[in-house]
């Protein structure tokens, strides 16, 4: 991580944009048929990552099997200890594969695009289903958002979370009309205006457009004032609109106060022993 940060000299950072420049927004949607789909507001798909790699899916299956095998062994037995150790090793391996997968995607995205709009995690959670691959992507999405935020921070780029009530997958990216007919099974978004588009791509385009609109309001008013296209929940109640600017994290973290005091206490406590042994 440190090495990666050190590599990022000024040449690798994104060019600063003028406030009046509202372009360059890319929406990143957590797809239903892919891990993610990224697109610009004019409808161009820039990235598509299909489902998590096979070794990860296979690894999750084995992980479940090993976990079962631990619970079947007698508590306190040698066999149980061995099975637990095997599960632990396998768990570490699966975590490594997942991390590698996420690092590759996030680095690729922040290298090219300086303005990203992500779906709010809570909205993303609504799409959850029981498929194993989906479970993997559920676990991966929070980590994905975390990685993309700090990496974009290194490159002086921007990450914005769309309003959690913004129905990115239900809006037509051409005419802006919201449909209620879309089900989870529909892979193609079809609107009454004749617009037909891959469902995930349509959502990513909407997120990019959201970023543009948000930027316009932010640069004009100093704070975002625009209402999202729908500020109503399913039961018709008006909802508070709380967009989040994700600040880039600091590259070097100072130790917290509690950490410092704990170490000094420990040093203080161990000092007499050390003195005693050297004397
Ligand atoms: Zn339409």
Overall tally of structural domains: 1
User: What compounds sit in this structure?
Assistant: zinc ion
Helix content: 40-55%
Give me the Rg, rounded.
24 Å
The helix/strand series, from N terminus to C terminus, equals: HEEEHHEHHEEEHEH
Mean pLDDT, to the nearest integer, reads 75
Structural class: alpha/beta
Alpha carbon gap, first and last residue: 43 Å
Shape: globular
Question: What descriptors fit this protein?
Answer:
279 residues; alpha/beta; disordered C terminus; binds zinc ion
What does this entry look like structurally?
The protein is α/β, with parallel strands linked by helices and 279 residues long. It has one domain (2-278). Helices cover 48% and strands 11% of the residues. It contains seven helices and eight strands. Strands 3-2-1-4-5-8 form a six-stranded mixed β-sheet. A two-stranded antiparallel sheet has the order 6-7. A hairpin with a 6-residue loop joins strand 1 (25-29) and strand 2 (36-40). Helix 2 (54-72) packs antiparallel against helix 3 (78-112) and helix 3 (78-112) crosses helix 5 (132-154). The radius of gyration is 24 Å and the shape is globular. Residues 123-127 and 225-279 have low confidence and may be disordered. Zinc ion binds at residues 172, 174-175, 177, 191, 193, 195.
